Amino acid sequence: MTTPYISIRKHYRLVRNKHYNIPNPNDQPGGAEQTIQIPGNSSEPTSTLVLTSHTSRFVDIRIYKTSHESTSRGGLDDLPRDGGQMERLQWAFAGTLKTTKPTPKPKGKSDNDNDNNIDAPDSHNVWTHWIDSSEKDPDQVDEGDMYNLPNGDVLERGENVDSETGKVQIYEELWRDLDVETIPGEGRRVCTVLQVENAEEGIRGLIIRVGGYAEGLMSERGKGVTAERWQWFDSEASNQLGDGYGRAANEMGEYGGWVRTARLGDGAMPCTKLFVDSDVVREGEIIRFGRLDWRVVEKYSW
Fold this sequence. Notes:
- Helix content is about 0%, strand content about 50%.
- The protein has one helix at about 235-240, and strands at about 5-20, 30-40, 45-50, 55-65, 90-100, 125-130, 140-150, 155-160, 170-180, 190-200, 205-210, 215-220, 225-235, 245, 255-265, 285-290, 290-300.
- The two termini are about 15 Å apart.
- It has one helix and 17 strands.
- The longest helix has 6 residues, at about 235-240.
- The strands form two sheets. The chain has an eight-stranded antiparallel beta barrel.
- The chain is an all-beta fold.
């Protein structure tokens, strides 16, 4: 079990290996080969938000930014909210996370924001995908070593396969956890998880709310995926957003309310059911939404 948390990605970059041949002294035949790792340039082409629950379920949605993102209301105006523009979905997946303490092993120096000397990971994470927007097996697994940095950020380092060359490459992702806020009127921080599965129709769905953020991801055979992201805003910030955002109408009170900040796909998910008073939605309850029965598989507050 873990305390629920909210993570945003700050940057992504590849690390390439470069091989050098070190000649023997006095120009003797032979020599030794040395490999050094050279980090590439870091960038963040996406708006990436990951919500992880008390029992380590997670939803990870990554949406491509556009060129004007940096100047448009912190990037919110840049996100697609009407269900179209599926090409903007870089990747979305959901499932379960397992964290272990790895056997310490030297990693050398990693060139990150703080130029820290990173010798051994603090933990090793394995994410098992239950839903995946890519063409790969939806039950695929990816993993990475996690390094806690002095400024509170977390560096993830692992290997993936280059989609163009098919070669294994080293990657780094820099993450920052956001504060989990208590929504006015609830009195405590809340994490709620809804899940649905219909094997006959090839439907899987997972919705997670942690504090003032919620994300949902659903896949349906032959219809692709639907992804949504919601955020709670106080009344002043909500009014400044204007009319282009979907709102949970029953939750727009004097203190603020929930706003849909991103939507891709044409499926329907009961994300707003997570915004009612925490005593109304109970673990084990079935929520009928359209033709599907969603189960409250997790309810936690702290």
